[in-house]
Amino acid sequence: MSELVTGDAVVLGLRPAKLPSRALALSIDLVVVGTAFVLVSVGLAVATSGLDAAAFAAVSVATFLLVLVGAPIAVETLSHGRSLGKLACGLRVVRDDGGPIRFRHALVRGAMGVVEILMTLGVVASVASLVSARGRRLGDVFAGTLVVRERLPAGRSASVPPPPPWLVGRFAGLDLSAVPDELWLAVRQYLTRMHQLDADVGRAMAGRLAGELAGWTGVPAPVGVPAAAYLAAVVNERQARDAHRMFAASRSSSDGSDGSGGPGGPGGTGGPGGTGTGWPMGPPGPAGGGSGSGASVSKGPWGSGAVPGTPAAPAAAPGVPAAGEDPAPPAATGFAPPA
Known about the structure:
Blueprint (H helix, E strand, L loop, with lengths): L14 E2 L2 H29 L5 H26 L5 H6 L1 E5 L7 H17 L3 H9 L6 H6 L1 E5 L31 H12 L6 H19 L9 H28 L85
Antiparallel strand pairs: 1-3, 2-3
Helix pairs in contact: 1-2, 2-4, 7-8, 7-9, 8-9
C-alpha cells in the first residue's frame, strides 16, 4: 500500500513522493543554495582579502556551514517541511505519523544530507530512496520523516459513500454539536477508504468509531444497524445540516433580511413604517401611511399604551390635529358669507 497507515489502521490521504519528483525538487534547491553560496563567498573574499590563510579558511568553513547546511535546515523548520524546490513540485516533509516536522527533524535531515547528498553527489540518497518502499533516504530514516505529495490529481479524490436509503433522515434529532473535529476526520477517512482495509480490521475500526461517536452524542447506536452504515448515516446527516445552514444564510443575505435592506424590510428606506435609518425602532406602522418613525401605540402584554422599548410619538404642533382626531372647526370671524 502506497498510502500512510497509522497504528490505528487509519489510512491517511498522503502519498509518499517517488525518486524523480524528489530529485527534481532537490535540483531546484541545490541551484538556489549554490547560487547563494557563490555570491556570499565572492562577497566575503572581497571583504576579507587582507586576512591571512588561516582566517580565510575559517571564514570559508563558516560560510559553507551557514549557507549549504544551516539555510536548508532553517527553511524546512520555518516552512514546516516545504523548501522552494518541494513547494514547486508539490512535495512536503512530514513525520511518520503525518504531522509537521520540527527543528530536530530538519537538523537530522540536514546533517545526513551533507554526507549522502553533498559529499557523495547524491548517489547514497538515490540508492536509499530506490531501496526504500516509501522512497526514504537515510536522513528520513534517522529523523523519522517522510516526503509526501501534497497535490494529487482531482480524479483520485475519494468521497464519502452515501448511507443506505432506509437510514437517511433517521438521525435528524441527534445532537452533533459536541462531536470533535478529530473524530469527524477519522470517520471520514475510514468511510472513504474502508474497502482498502482488511475485513476484520475494518469491522473492528468501524465498531470503535461508532462507539466513540455514540459516546459524544449521548445516544447509543441502533441495535442491528452495521457500524459502517451507522457512521455513513450520521456523516450524511451532518452534511445535510451544513448544507441547510449555508442555503439559509444565502437566502437571508439575498432577500435583505440581514439588515442590508429591501423596501419595507428591516433597515429599509421607505417602506411602510420604516425608520429610514437602517435600524428598526419599533413595530411597523400602518400600511400605506404613518409618520415613518416606526412608533405605534398598541396594546402590549402589559395593557393599553405604547409597546415598551419604542419611542413615544412626537407631540403635535399647535393648531395641528393629532393623528386620529377630527380637525377642529375654524374659529368664528363675524363675517357671514352671502346666501
